[in-house]
Write a structure and sequence with these properties.
Layout: E1 5-11, E2 14-20, H1 24-44, H2 50-84, H3 86-188
Antiparallel strand pairs: 1-2
Length: 189
């Protein structure tokens, strides 16, 4: 059995001894609340007697209590709805967790693909760079070969010109020899 506590309080200028199970602080807080309500009623209408003010304060407190009880009942009904839906919400949560796990697996697979793609990309970039360097070397060789071809073509041209000149000289020499031969032949005759 809970121990009863006696507490002395003042309400509307009168002293009361309250016996109850609540702590002294709690009882004094309640008394202070009631005292304030009574004083509110008197401040609104100074013609009220103490008992009328106490009655109106009690009526206001009862009204607040009634509204609070109604709200509490409404909240209790609302609080039951989630509990009634608990199983379906739990089932839905499990489904969402399963979906999340699937998506996580897919995400990890995609991450692996991205990593592999990056590796492939790096290899391809190195290969492209190697081809680029090889192309530069080949272009240099081509330029050198084109220069060499040009020099050789120039040399062939010079040689052809020289050959033509030599042919002309040879023809002249042959002609001169032929003329001299003819001259010798004419002299013999």
């Amino acid at each position: 059995m809970t121990k009863k506590i006696k507490t002395s309080v003042t309400i509307d200028g009168r002293n009361f001894t309250v016996v109850g199970e609540g702590s002294v602080e709690y009882v004094r807080e309640l008394a202070s609340f009631v005292d304030k309500k009574i004083k509110e009623m008197i401040s609104k209408n100074d013609k009220l007697s103490s008992s009328m003010a106490a009655t109106l304060a009690a009526l206001n407190i009862a009204h607040d209590l009634y509204k609070s009880n109604k709200e509490l009942d409404s909240l209790k009904v609302e609080a039951k709805k989630p509990l009634e839906n608990y199983d379906s919400i739990l089932e839905q949560l499990e489904k969402e967790r399963a979906k999340n796990d699937e998506l996580e697996i897919k995400c990890n697979a995609l991450k692996d693909e991205v990593i592999e793609s990056k590796k492939q990309n790096e290899l391809l970039m190195r290969e492209v760079e190697n081809y680029r360097k090889a192309l530069q070397i080949k272009e240099r060789e081509l330029m050198e070969n084109q220069t060499l071809i040009k020099k050789l073509q120039d040399k062939i041209y010079e040689n052809q010109v020289e050959l033509i000149e030599v042919k002309k000289e040879l023809e002249e020499v042959l002609k001169t020899i032929d003329e001299e031969k003819n001259l010798f032949n004419k002299e013999e005759v």
